[in-house]
Design goal:
It is found in: Cell outer membrane. Belongs to the SusD family. This is RagB/SusD family nutrient uptake outer membrane protein. Keywords: Cell outer membrane, Membrane, Signal. The radius of gyration is 23 Å and the shape is globular. It starts with 12 loop residues before the first helix and ends in a 10-residue tail after the last helix. 52% of the residues are buried. The strands form 5 sheets. The protein has a 4-stranded mixed beta sheet with strand order 6-7-8-11, with no helix packed on it. The protein has a two-stranded antiparallel sheet with strand order 1-2. The chain has a two-stranded antiparallel ribbon with strand order 3-4. The N terminus is likely disordered. Helix 9 packs antiparallel against helix 14. 36% of the residues lie in helices and 7% in strands.
Length: 541
């Protein structure tokens, strides 16, 4: 990052202090412990509040979980521009697949989500006297956190809170891990409330629909964790679970970029199944914008970009992506690709109001993928810090024009803007985690993997997003559609692994890592191997 300083922005206080000491899943003296071990929580409801708050910070962060799921793929990269975003290669090694067990993000994600798991287990301990709602929330959070660890590391240490704190955590893998997670999700479904679509802030907590979504996600990926091919029975369960989610009123909705606005200002939507209110959408906004992006006080951080090959998944002129003042596309591109307005839409209302069509900040920033000349509110072309035109470019090149991951200037790389600063300036408390369009595509995929034809389902979504219907849909069309719909929503790594494409070649990947299936899992942090001999280092590390 700028001046080679790595910073984590917009983390909630709870995410910083909540469970950061859980590296070894040890129970500390400050957690209602006496010499013989854990004795229960005095206030399990407050513990649940803290867990959701921690998840908000963990999910909203630009580093750690987000970076491991997106920067390791073709969807995102963080080039070094001069001295900015060098960080001793911290970001580059993720994208080129040359990370090792000492990488800070790999250790932090292990600590955070294993810490969530332990916190949820404390709530679920009978000595904490949890209510049915507590049981539902804690079962969901534990299942989600254990699934993240299984998906990223392939083995899950589990501490039984009834055992002495000196006991080593049991390690769950394969079928045992999947069964444990699914059992927790069944318990969550039994105890969580039914929440209708469009209920706004209530979707910041889990519901039956959220637990069913996660169960469908686990079943869709089950063959990755166990080996072999997808099971038809599992695929049928995925289809049934998505149908049950739809029964609660969740459905596809038009107006793509409105889905990523705070539902309190839009009246809600039928797509958001679970969101988090971490006030951290700024990490999805600022890290791609240039320092001179005038819509925001202080400008952006000029870091994250996407690959031209990812941008080219969309319909439209590959070199032009214009939009009108409201962000409506002008160059034949589909809605999800967005566009860059040649003039901004000035703010005319009072602070905190929704005058001017819901606009809260005057903004010249476009929607979706930002390429080409960028403009000020009055239509004046912006410049970079050296006075050259601020034109975001498809390619990453050094001063000689050669392709380069380092020595880029300030303007290389197409930028991504799914959450827009004109709606709250990056502090809107609504970041989508589970969305119905994903469930819709999971059902289509389950149909494909069980011998059905998903073409009609995929085209239903494409037509809604202003894209041309496809003649037929196979595996490649489906992974491409997931990429077009779900960019920046922290699913790309998981999707590429399930479709067998995480090890393929892309720009700047190390040639020695192409085809290396060992990269489908991250290494167990070395300190954890020393702390718990039940863990075994993953192959290739």
């Amino acid at each position: 990052m700028k001046r080679n300083q790595f910073k984590i922005y917009f983390l909630t206080i709870a995410s910083v202090i909540g469970l950061s000491a859980c590296t070894n899943l040890e129970i500390e003296a400050t957690d209602s412990i006496i010499s013989e071990g854990f004795q229960g929580l005095a206030d399990p409801s407050s513990a649940i509040d803290g867990l959701y708050s921690s998840l908000g910070g963990q999910y909203g962060d630009q580093a750690n979980f987000f970076a491991l799921q997106e920067v390791t793929t073709d969807a995102a990269l963080v080039p070094t521009r001069g001295t900015d975003w060098g960080d001793n290669g911290l970001w580059r090694v993720l994208h080129n697949h040359s990370w090792n067990g000492e990488h800070a993000f790999i250790g932090t994600v292990w600590n955070q989500f294993n810490g969530n798991q332990l916190g949820a287990s404390r709530v679920l301990d009978s000595r904490s006297n949890p209510s049915a709602q507590n049981i539902g929330d804690a079962s969901f959070i534990r299942a989600y956190s254990m699934w993240v660890i299984l998906d990223n590391y392939g083995q899950v240490p589990f501490r039984d809170t009834s055992l002495p704190s000196s006991s080593l955590p049991e390690v769950l893998t394969g079928q045992a891990a999947v069964d444990f997670i699914l059992a927790d999700l069944d318990q969550a479904i039994a105890n969580l409330p039914t929440v209708a679509a469009g209920s706004g802030a209530t979707l910041n907590r889990a519901s039956k629909a959220a637990a069913r979504y996660l169960k469908a996600k686990v079943l869709l990926n089950k063959h990755i964790y166990l080996g072999g091919s997808p099971d038809t029975g599992d695929m049928n369960q995925v289809i049934a679970l998505v149908d049950q989610i739809a029964d609660d009123g969740f459905a596809l909705q038009a107006g793509f970029f409105d889905l990523f606005r705070d539902p309190a200002t839009t009246g809600g939507n039928t797509e958001t199944i679970w969101s988090l209110s971490a006030l951290a959408t700024g990490n999805r906004i600022f890290n791609g914008l240039h320092y001179n992006s005038t819509a925001i006080s202080g400008g952006g951080w000029n870091g994250f970009s996407t690959l031209a090959e990812y941008y080219d998944l969309y319909e439209g002129d590959p070199n032009s992506n214009r939009a009108d003042v409201n962000g409506n596309p002008l160059d034949g591109q589909e809605e999800r690709r967005g566009g860059v307005p040649s003039a901004g839409k000035p703010y005319t209302g009072e602070p905190g109001t929704t005058d001017n069509g819901g606009l809260e900040d005057g903004s010249n920033v476009g929607f979706g993928y930002l390429i080409g000349q960028q403009y000020a509110l009055d239509g004046t072309p912006l410049t970079d810090r050296a006075g050259a035109p601020l034109t975001f470019k498809r390619d990453f090149v050094d001063g000689t024009g050669a392709s380069s991951f380092i020595n880029n200037d300030e303007t290389t790389g197409i930028r991504v803007m799914k959450y827009n600063p004109r709606y709250g300036g990056g502090f809107a408390g609504h970041e989508v985690v589970f969305r119905y369009a994903d469930a819709h595509l999971m059902k289509a995929e389950a149909m494909l993997r069980s011998g059905g034809d998903p073409t009609a389902m995929v085209n239903e979504l494409r037509v809604l997003r202003g894209a041309t219907p496809l003649g037929s849909v196979g595996a490649q069309e489906l992974i491409d559609e997931r990429g077009r719909e779900l960019y920046q929503e922290v699913w790309r790594r998981n999707d590429l692994i399930r479709f067998g494409q995480f090890t393929r070649d892309w720009l700047f990947k190390e040639s020695s890592e192409i085809g290396n299936a060992n990269r489908n899992l991250f290494p167990i942090p070395p300190a954890q191997l020393l702390a718990n001999p039940n863990l075994v280092q993953n192959p290739g590390y």
